[in-house]
Amino acid sequence: MGIVTIEGSVESPVADVLSKLIVTAHTSSDGLTSSTMSSPVGADASFRIDGIRPGKISLNYFLPRGAPAGVNLLLIERNGVAVREGIDVRAGENITGLRLALVSAAALYEGR
To answer: Does the model's pTM come out above 0.85?
Structure first.
């Protein structure tokens, strides 16, 4: 389905965060019905979320309790184009080419 990248300077503690991330997809189909599915990020920085319902999905990430913090969501892309208002998913559609770009909080603070 997609990959997660960390932009800017990546020190070891921040790189370790990548292996602990969980990507979530929240679907809202009619304003009343919604569902949330999730996937851990693999060693190759990929994620795959199965069972997403048709509708508009919004992607996000979280770190489990106790995992080191230090990253912020910079942007979401689909096939190299920034996604600002969610992704429309039709029944049976296979969504690929997604990228969640994260930035280390230190790099953001330092302006890198």
So the answer is: no
What is the span of the domain harbouring residue 75? 2-110
pLDDT digits (tens, 9 = 90+) for 59-72: 998 887 766 666 78
Sheet strands side by side (includes 22-28):
34-40, 22-28, 55-62, 87-89
- Report the Cα–Cα distance between both ends of the chain, in Å, rounded: 28
Tokens encoding 78: 């689909």
Contact 76, 98 (CB under 8 A): yes
Buried b (16+ CB within 10 A) or exposed e, 64-94: eeeeeebbeebebbeeeeebeebbebeeeee
